[in-house]
């Protein structure tokens, strides 16, 4: 899924999981899947919407663009972003 621009992958790491998004061949974003509106909510995690146009939290309905910014509330803060770096075709994700 990360072989093309706009691709994404879910990984088991972080607090509630991490979503990695490829913007370009050299630019990747990694976000915490816990919604900033209620990070401890057990009813859902942030996922890519079926339209593949934005991220959404199924519990509160907050929406985020692929840069992690809020596009629809109730969340008022963007997604927690992890640092990414690419070296020799290996993507590193750190906090």
Q: What labels would you give this structure?
A:
95 residues; mainly beta; Rieske Iron-sulfur Protein; 5-stranded antiparallel sheet; 4-stranded antiparallel sheet; 9 strands; 0% helix
Structure description:
- With 95 residues, this protein is mainly β.
- The protein has one domain: Rieske [2Fe-2S] iron-sulphur domain (Rieske Iron-sulfur Protein, 3-layer Sandwich), CATH 2.102.10.10.
- The chain is built from no helices and nine strands.
- The strands form two sheets. A five-stranded antiparallel β-sheet has the order 1-2-3-8-9, with no helix packed on it. It has a four-stranded antiparallel β-sheet with strand order 4-5-6-7, with no helix packed on it.
- Strand 8 and strand 9 form a beta hairpin.
- The radius of gyration is 13 Å and the shape is globular.
- The two termini are 23 Å apart.
- The model has no long low-confidence stretch (mean pLDDT 93).
Q: What do we call the CATH homologous superfamily?
A: Rieske [2Fe-2S] iron-sulphur domain
- Give Rg in angstroms: 13 Å
Report on the biggest sheet: 5 strands, antiparallel
Instruction: State the distance separating the first and last CA atoms.
Output: 23 Å
How is the secondary structure organized here?
Blueprint: E1 8-11, E2 18-24, E3 27-32, E4 46-48, E5 55-57, E6 63-64, E7 70-72, E8 81-87, E9 90-94
Antiparallel strand pairs: 1-2, 2-3, 3-8, 4-5, 5-6, 6-7, 8-9
Question: What can be said about this structure in brief?
Answer:
The protein is mainly β and 95 residues long. It is built from no helices and nine strands.
């Amino acid at each position: 899924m990360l072989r093309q621009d706009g691709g994404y992958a879910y990984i088991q790491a972080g607090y509630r999981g991490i979503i990695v998004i490829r913007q370009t061949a050299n630019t990747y974003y990694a976000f915490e899947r816990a919604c900033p509106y209620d990070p401890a909510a057990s009813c859902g995690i942030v996922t890519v919407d079926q339209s593949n146009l934005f991220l959404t939290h199924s519990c509160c309905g907050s929406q985020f663009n692929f840069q992690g910014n809020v596009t629809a509330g109730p969340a008022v803060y963007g997604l927690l972003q992890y640092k990414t770096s690419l070296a020799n075709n290996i993507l590193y994700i750190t906090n």
